[in-house]
Structure formats: structure tokens, C-alpha cells
Specification:
alpha/beta; elongated; 8 strands; 8 helices; 4-stranded parallel beta sheet; Rossmann fold
């Protein structure tokens, strides 16, 4: 049996992370029944697993150092082989999941009447901030939302208040605020606090447990085990996305 280590976003906080992460672990375990899925490297090593794929549940590659993370994991488990999978996004499955969260929060309004404000955590790393903007653009492409804008919670601008003001200035009567995080209800709560009291503003659910997230984790695990022959990024229009078979025993 192979092993898959699912790491929560290193910036995620809050006691509610436990059940959120547990739901993701359960869904992935069901999708990969012959793979031991855990959020604890120590637990995997104690059970005798020496070949582990580690996958950070982060929406983008920027903002953390994969090399440092991989080194830290290997130091925690001397003798074990730890392979670090790619970050989750930007990826069409996450963009589709984001669109579903927005549509669920429309409160009866037509998409064409609604502006969307994608809120990222914010960083001193320009690439991390740019990834949020990329997701916002991908969210708008091919959909009927009146507009999609970006804001950040800290370290850079625009902040949530400025982002909402921009949506209003551009003509959005209603705005859906979308927290750009995977398994971090604490972040979503902080975003909701910043948007509280604003008339016509609804906060969408963040990107928690879902069939889309499970499928993407399975895809990343398959890549780490078997390689990923690709000429471009996940969202490139010229990349032919082939669904990976769920090879349970050898996945």
C-alpha cells in the first residue's frame, strides 16, 4: 500500500480546521481505497509506510517554498522517501468549484447582475498575489458574471473595502465575495467579517471538501507517482486534459 500525506495550508488557522480537513481526508480515502491517506506523517511512519506522497492543500504554488517543505518532511521521517506533489492550482477544477460557490450565493439574482470579488490572503510575494488575479480572470472567462475583481486580506491592496467600492463603481448592484482558500474556514470567517454590514453583499463558501477537490487531489497523486507529461500549465487552452484512471493499487 502506498501513502498520501495531505498537508493543510501552512497559513490556515482555527480549531474548525479539524473537521474540514477530516472531510477531505475521508473523500480522498474513498476515491483511493488502496492508498493510506493521512494528515500526519508520524502516523504514516508508525504504520510502516516508507514511500509517501505529500500534497499541500494550497490553491497556488506561490507563497511557500516546496524545497524547504520537502526537506522538513524528510527530516521528520529519516529513511522514508517523501515525494512532494504539485500545489493544487490554478486548475480548471478549482475554477469550476469557485464558480459553483458563487452561484450558490447569488440569492436568486441572475449572474449577469452580480459582481464577484475574489479575496486572497495577500502576500509580500507578487507571484502569490498574481495567482489570485489569474483565478479571478479564469473565473470570468466563459461565464455571465457582470465583473470579477480581486482584493486581499493583508500585506497588499486593494483590501476588501476597496475591492467592494470598485465593484460598486463599475456598476455591480450585488456583489458575491469569494474567499480564495481551500481548507481554511478561519480565513473565510475573516473575509466575511471585512464584508459584514455591506448592503447587497453575499459571502460565498470557500473551497472546502467537494468532488472537484477530491478529483484534483487524485490527479496530483497520480502525477507524483507516475509523472505528468505536459507542455504547458493546467489551464492552457492547448493542453489536452485527459482524465487519469483511478489506479487504486498502483496510484
Amino acid at each position: 500500500m502506498s501513502a498520501l500525506l495531505l498537508l493543510p495550508d501552512p497559513t490556515a488557522t482555527g480549531a474548525a480546521l479539524g473537521p474540514e480537513l477530516a472531510a477531505v481526508l475521508a473523500d480522498v480515502q474513498e476515491a483511493l481505497p488502496d492508498v493510506l491517506v493521512s494528515a500526519s506523517l508520524a502516523e504514516l511512519v508508525e504504520r510502516g509506510e516508507q514511500d509517501v506522497v505529500a500534497l499541500p492543500l494550497v490553491p497556488g504554488a506561490a507563497g511557500y517554498d516546496p524545497g524547504i517543505l520537502e526537506l522538513a518532511l524528510r527530516q521528520q521521517a529519516p529513511g522514508a522517501t517523501v515525494t512532494l506533489a504539485r500545489a493544487l492550482g490554478p486548475h480548471p477544477l478549482l475554477v469550476e468549484l469557485a464558480a459553483q460557490r458563487v452561484l450558490a450565493a447569488l440569492d436568486g439574482a441572475a449572474p449577469a447582475e452580480v459582481g464577484v470579488l475574489v479575496v486572497g490572503p495577500g502576500s509580500h510575494d507578487p507571484e502569490a498575489n498574481a495567482e489570485v488575479a489569474k483565478v479571478a480572470r479564469l473565473l470570468q472567462e466563459g461565464r455571465d458574471f457582470a465583473l470579477v475583481e480581486v482584493a486581499y486580506l493583508a500585506d497588499t491592496g486593494p483590501d476588501v473595502a476597496a475591492g467592494l467600492a470598485r465593484c460598486r463603481a463599475l456598476g455591480a448592484g450585488r456583489v458575491v465575495v469569494l474567499p480564495h482558500a481551500v481548507v481554511d474556514p478561519g480565513f473565510a470567517a475573516r473575509v466575511a467579517e471585512r464584508a459584514a454590514g455591506e448592503e447587497g453583499v453575499h459571502v460565498a463558501g470557500h473551497l472546502a471538501a467537494s468532488p472537484e477537490l477530491t478529483a484534483l487531489v487524485v490527479e496530483r497523486h497520480h502525477e507524483a507517482r507516475h509523472g505528468d507529461l505536459r507542455m504547458s500549465c493546467d489551464v492552457c487552452a492547448y493542453r489536452e486534459l485527459q482524465p487519469h484512471p483511478h489506479e487504486h493499487a498502483g496510484a
